[in-house]
Amino acid sequence: MQTQAVAEQFTKFYYDTFDRNRTDLASLYRDPSMLTFEGVQTQGVNSIVEKLVSLPFQKVAHRISTVDAQPSNPNNQSIVVTVTGQLLIDDETNPQMFTQTFNLIADGGSFWVYNDIFRLNYA
Amino acid sequence: MQTQAVAEQFTKFYYDTFDRNRTDLASLYRDPSMLTFEGVQTQGVNSIVEKLVSLPFQKVAHRISTVDAQPSNPNNQSIVVTVTGQLLIDDETNPQMFTQTFNLIADGGSFWVYNDIFRLNYA
Fold first, then answer.
1. CA A107 to chain CA centroid, nearest Å
2. NTF2 domain spans which residues (chains A, B) (predicted)?
3. Which residue has the higher pLDDT, A58 or B84?
4. Backbone φ, ψ for residue A8 (5° rounding)
């Protein structure tokens, strides 16, 4: 599958899962996975899911604005993806802008998240 | 050198060079390098520098807000960096927010840019 198509399919699945049930994101991370969330670093599937589940909101909705992807090594075994979008938390009506970067590693027909960097964009 | 220190040093050098003389960025790219600039893809040092030099402004100043970095492979031979910041173009006084992701490859004591994804963030 083409890089951009993989990135878009992954991104849709990731945010659908995040917005429905964050614990289900565990299937996308492994022990070497790294997450830097608003500057705080976490490593490993358990720590990452614990961090994501602990975020202090009940409801969240991600709206994707852009998805850009490139192969991140010459063997087409990994893909770097940068997403920009908007985040609606709980009953707020003003979305917050965010940026998220993933580095995805191919394993058979699927991909897992090696790198994950999340930032809110403040004007 | 530590991942975060490399990322900050690279980022400072990149934007200082960009804002002073974009053609000097040629030293940071190679033929396999990829740039996706506002969704437009380019590959190779010559095409990338041509794209950057052709951007329609005379003066530009990047202000860095955040720099997040992680090793992007298990051998510490590459680093993924996501930068958020503000961009001041020509004589405008309202900065535009931007996001840029680099994947840097180690070569001896220095790093070159394998992946480069740039996006303006629109509210």
1. 18
2. 6-120
3. B84
4. -70, -40
**Dihedral sign for Cα atoms in the order B46, B48, B52, B55:** positive
**Is A28:A14 a contact under the CB 8 Å cutoff?**
yes
Adjacent-strand bridge partners of B83: B67, B100
Output phi, psi for B24, to 5 deg: -70, -10
Contact B121 A68 (CB under 8 A): no
Check whether A75 has a pLDDT greater than 90.
Answer: no
**Mean pLDDT of the region B24-50:** 97
Residues of chain B in contact with residue A72, where contact means CB-CB under 8 angstroms, are 72, 78, 80, 103, 114-115
User: What band does A1 get if pLDDT is binned at 50, 70 and 90?
Assistant: low
Residue B74 has pLDDT above 90, yes or no: no
Write the residue in B74, B103, B122 that is nearest to A72 by C-beta: B103
CB atoms within 10 A of CB B70: 24
B119 min Cα distance to partner chain A (Å): 8
User: Per-residue pLDDT for A101 more than 70?
Assistant: yes
Backbone angles phi, psi at B28, to 5 degrees: -95, -10
- Residue B100 · residue B18 · CB < 8 Å: no
Q: Which two tokens stand for residue B81?
A: 């960096």
* Alpha-carbon span A114 to B103, nearest angstrom: 13
Which chain B residues have any C-beta within 8 angstroms of a chain A C-beta?
32, 34, 36, 39, 41, 65-66, 68-74, 78, 80, 82, 84, 97, 99, 101, 103, 114-115, 117, 119, 121-123
